[in-house]
């Protein structure tokens, strides 16, 4: 995960010897328990997930990566976070930069069970879940958590969250299916505080929540000291909500939410990619140019390819694409 360099004096903790740079774990757990209590009935799947997250959140001062620990653990709603991820990796093995205390690095075990009979029946029938929807749902959770703070964002297919203020990257997502296909581990790297000392490439394409909120609210805006805790709580909360939606419709499509509409439509509504002219860089150096027109139920991207009039959109899966960039 990369971060935007800065020249202001925001409280961007860098030294893990400074207690202010450490995540306030009790505060996050307490906030999650309060949200669970607000859900009311114990049979509510989101409320149960929030309660399990409060119990299952573990935090480390430093780790090479949160993802292997969560994958090895596999406990439903285990969340592994760290103040400093020293060897983080994203999609296709790309590196993530995570200076100490500057952001959020967390991996969450999303279970493929939720006490929903139709879901359990679908899994028993060996129905293949729509895995490609998962990173989009995780991105939507980050989007909603930041929207609650007043920051407009969009989800770039297949696994990034961009600021709609600057167009720069705020978060990256890595999802991996757990052992036996009974869970998905969602890794999230999210820039909260601005940091200095990055490469020119990293600084040029990334942003922080703090900087983007200042752009929204004006230069006099003062970030709260617990901004990182607020963001993490919000992300975990919305992740529980989107997980419940995916668990139903992504595994058992007959459970589509009549009130909110099909999951694909809801994901399309938060997309920063649809309607854009894009270049898809494929393995082997092939370049495909076209207009991103929609999302497939699989989570794939539908593209009207230039030079193929009347052929209809082609569907691309994340595994088929090395890079997705604005057409130039």
TrEMBL record:
Its EC number is 6.3.4.15. This is biotin--[biotin carboxyl-carrier protein] ligase. It comes from the Bacteria. It is an enzyme of class 6 (ligase). It comes from Kytococcus schroeteri. Residues 1-22 are annotated as: Disordered. The keyword Ligase applies. PROSITE patterns: BPL_LPL_CATALYTIC. The lineage of its organism: Bacteria, Bacillati, Actinomycetota, Actinomycetes, Micrococcales. Keywords: Biotin, Ligase. Pfam families: BPL_C, BPL_LplA_LipB. InterPro entries: aa-tRNA-synth_II/BPL/LPL, Biotin_CoA_COase_ligase, BPL_C, BPL_LPL_catalytic. GO terms for cellular component: cytoplasm. Residues 52-243 form the BPL/LPL catalytic domain. The keyword Ligase applies. GO terms for molecular function: biotin--[biotin carboxyl-carrier protein] ligase activity.
């Amino acid at each position: 995960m990369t971060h935007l360099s800065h020249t202001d004096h925001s409280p961007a903790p860098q030294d893990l010897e400074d207690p202010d740079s450490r995540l306030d774990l009790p505060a996050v757990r307490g906030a999650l328990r309060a949200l669970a209590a607000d859900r009311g009935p114990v049979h509510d799947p989101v409320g149960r997930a929030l309660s399990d997250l409060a119990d299952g959140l573990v935090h480390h001062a430093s780790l090479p990566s949160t993802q292997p620990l969560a994958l090895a653990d596999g406990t439903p709603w285990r969340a592994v976070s760290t103040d400093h991820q020293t060897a983080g990796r994203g999609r296709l093995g790309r590196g993530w930069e995570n200076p100490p205390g500057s952001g959020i690095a967390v991996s969450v075990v999303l279970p493929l069970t939720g006490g929903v009979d139709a879901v359990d029946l679908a899994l028993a029938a060996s129905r293949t879940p729509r895995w490609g929807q998962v990173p989009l749902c995780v991105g939507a959770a980050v989007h909603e958590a930041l929207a609650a703070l007043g920051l407009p964002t969009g989800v770039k297919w297949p696994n990034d969250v961009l600021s709609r203020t600057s167009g720069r990257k705020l978060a990256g997502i890595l999802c991996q299916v757990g052992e036996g296909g009974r869970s998905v581990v969602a890794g999230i790297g999210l820039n909260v505080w601005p940091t200095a000392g990055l490469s020119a490439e990293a600084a040029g394409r990334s942003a922080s929540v703090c900087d983007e909120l200042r752009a929204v609210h004006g230069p006099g805006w003062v970030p709260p000291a617990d901004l990182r805790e607020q963001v993490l709580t919000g992300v975990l909360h919305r992740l529980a909500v989107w997980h419940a939606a995916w668990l139903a419709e992504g595994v058992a499509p007959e459970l589509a939410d009549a009130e909110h509409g099909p999951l694909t439509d809801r994901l399309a509504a938060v997309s920063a990619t649809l309607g854009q002219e894009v270049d898809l860089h494929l393995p082997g150096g092939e370049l495909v140019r076209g207009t991103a027109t929609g999302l497939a139920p699989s989570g794939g991207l539908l593209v009207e390819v230039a030079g193929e009039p009347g052929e209809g959109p082609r569907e691309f899966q994340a595994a088929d694409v090395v890079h997705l960039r604005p057409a130039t």
